[in-house]
Design brief:
The complex is a heterodimer. By secondary structure, chain A is of the alpha/beta class. Helices cover 45% and strands 14% of the residues of chain A. Chain A contains 7 helices and 5 strands; from the N terminus they run αβαβαααβαβαβ. Chain A has a 5-stranded parallel sheet with strand order 4-3-2-1-5. In chain A, α6 links the parallel β3 and β4. Chain A is globular. Chain B is α+β, with helices and mostly antiparallel strands. Chain B has one domain: 2-Layer Sandwich (Translation Initiation Factor IF3). A 4-stranded mixed sheet of chain B has the order 1-2-4-3, covered by helices on one side. The longest helix of chain B has 12 residues.
């Protein structure tokens, strides 16, 4: 009996964890960072993560522009924007692309581009950063979105 | 109390959340079972994140000690 209990406690960390799905719509650096922090936390805690890139978020994942300045959300205002940039440049916050790379490194993290957004902007997968795993229609995204969905 | 033998020390002071946790995860992954790793962190998030991850990943939190305004998390890799 004691042996069985021990075995149960030692089940792998990644089993049966609900998938966290993140619909990334906003393409500003603060929101992308917030989303990447969610992704890395979920991945570290053994949850599969399913990221779907739409519109302005997708544009931020175009190769060669990932590390450029994508601004901040309107609610940041001038003062908030200044503080965010200061934190980013002083290393108080990591770049969202690095957080996503860490998330992919420690866990099961898939990043897909929304097919409609790709069409809207005339993008092809080769235009995107390699951290994007592929292009997906919304139904395919929903197939994997078995747990909560976060919209950022 | 017996002194704790630390096999590897990580100084993650100054790293933002979730940097110290990610450093610990990386070190645990590379280490052999039984290895004791200490992570020194000044990040507030580490105080909740590192114990949460250690519990979830079923390793052993050997000790948490304040060190010069930071926190030292001592973790043994169990499996």
């Amino acid at each position: 009996m004691v042996m069985q209990q021990t075995e149960t406690q030692q089940a792998p960390v990644t089993t049966e964890e609900p998938t966290l799905s993140i619909v990334l719509f906003s393409g500003t650096d603060d929101k992308l960072t917030a989303a990447a922090v969610m992704a890395v936390g979920a991945a570290a805690m053994g949850r599969p993560v399913n990221v779907f890139l739409q519109y302005w978020a997708l544009e931020a994942f175009v190769a060669d522009v990932v590390k450029t300045d994508h601004g901040t959300a309107p609610e940041a205002g001038n003062e908030g924007s200044r503080r965010f940039r200061e934190a980013a440049s002083s290393g108080k916050t990591q770049h969202w692309s690095e957080l996503l790379a860490q998330a992919k490194d420690v866990g099961d993290v898939a990043i897909h581009a929304c097919a409609l957004s790709m069409d809207t902007f005339g993008l092809r997968q080769e235009d995107l950063d390699p951290m994007v795993d592929g292009v997906q229609g919304v139904a395919a995204f929903m197939l994997d979105a078995t747990g909560p969905i976060v919209f950022i | 109390m017996e002194a704790i033998q630390i096999d590897r020390s990580i100084d993650a002071r100054g790293m933002p959340c979730p940097g110290p946790l990610m450093s610990l995860i990386g070190a645990i992954r590379e280490a052999e079972v039984g290895t004791v790793i200490s992570v020194l962190s000044s990040d507030e998030g580490s105080k909740t994140d590192i114990p949460a991850w250690v519990t979830k990943a079923r390793h052993e939190m050997v000790a948490v000690e304040p060190v010069d305004g930071a926190e030292s998390f001592i973790v043994r890799k169990v499996h």
